[in-house]
Amino acid sequence: MSQDFTIFPSMNFVDLGLYQFGREDCDPAHSFGPAIRNHYLFHYILSGKGTFMWQDRKGRENTAVLKAGQGFMISPQQITTYIADERIPWTYCWLEFDGLRARETVEITGLGINQPIYRPVHREFAEKMRDEMLYIVLNKKEAPLHLIGHLYLFIDALTRSVRDYQPSEGNVKDLYIKEALAYIENNYMNNISVEDIAERSGLNRSYFGKIFRNAVGKSPQEFLISYRMIKAAELLKLTRYSVSQIGTAVGYPNQLHFSRAFKAVYGVSPRNWRNANSTADPSDHSNPGS
Question: Which of 19, 90, 229, 247 lies 20 to 30 angstroms, CA to CA, from 26?
Fold first, then answer.
């Protein structure tokens, strides 16, 4: 069995980021699982065939025999097993990704826990999707943000290859969520509350909280905190602004409150996280950190 994979540098402070990716030439009857993954994991079959088994949202067992040109999407915490054919074992490539927008992004493709099987209907976009996957796998030395750009191109081609996707203008709930996400992205640095976000969407807090969690997988408050901490991590990694300045920049004028919130998400203080992850030029004294 030949395997080539890459564990991606820590980029979990972006809305959608890579964790690892690779390609594998499987031996006959080679199997993996039952296993549970922590992130979304998409496999595309380059040649050969095999069997994919998964549990749906209700815990029911499902099985599909797949061949070259098809694939499967594994969701976080989903139990799956996959086995290469005994006579014509498959070769596949894979991308593992996650982030604040991952669930929303995967749902757009039409894939998910209940229907993880990828069977493209538009050959042109399927080939584009395959090429984007292989580009990432074969160019692992490129800059992280460069490869994340190709991850977005992969997602776009994946979506277009499975159906004639058109944004659902009639889905009012989707419009509410998009409005809320845009409001958070543009105002996370200000003193905003869940009530403010719900009011922006024209909904009461209780109903808004319910449809937001169903769509995003987090409560509005959890998402707001996660988004602020992701932006804080970006500043800690890329600049030398002080912890206090960064806290204020993401909506926490009280440094103690900021440090507590950051540690609750990342497990360490902002200062310790910076010491382990900073890429800022130490000779740059224009915005010295602490």
Answer: 19
